[in-house]
Fold:
Amino acid sequence: MSLSELDLERERAALLELHATVRRAHFDTDVNQLLANDAEEWINVRDAKIVRRRREDNVRMFTEYFDGATYHEWDDIEPPIVSVSNDASLAWMIVNVRVRRMKNGEELRFRYAGIETFEKRDGRWIKVVEVGTFERD
Structure:
């Protein structure tokens, strides 16, 4: 079944809103907001390693990562590229962001580019795979 272009555009907009939510979660250092649309277990690819990540591990990791941190930048370098399957059951989004954060008096600047894969589950987009690259600024 193929959805109309209007429906697919609405799905793209929903995915862009998820990206905006992730941005807000960084500035708010809100772990629950950050992980709200992640699967209970998802696959992460980074540094030539494939790792299955469980929600409880991500909660622990991001709680520590956000503790005492403040974000001054978490901004798109270029607009995200979003693609939605014709039946709106799968989607991917490529993002490229610049990050500047402070923690414990130290500033960290880096760029992140990655692709996230989403499945539509119970009417919601859920992230199931993330492949990311980082480069110090």
About this structure: The helical segments are 5-28, 31-35, 55-66.
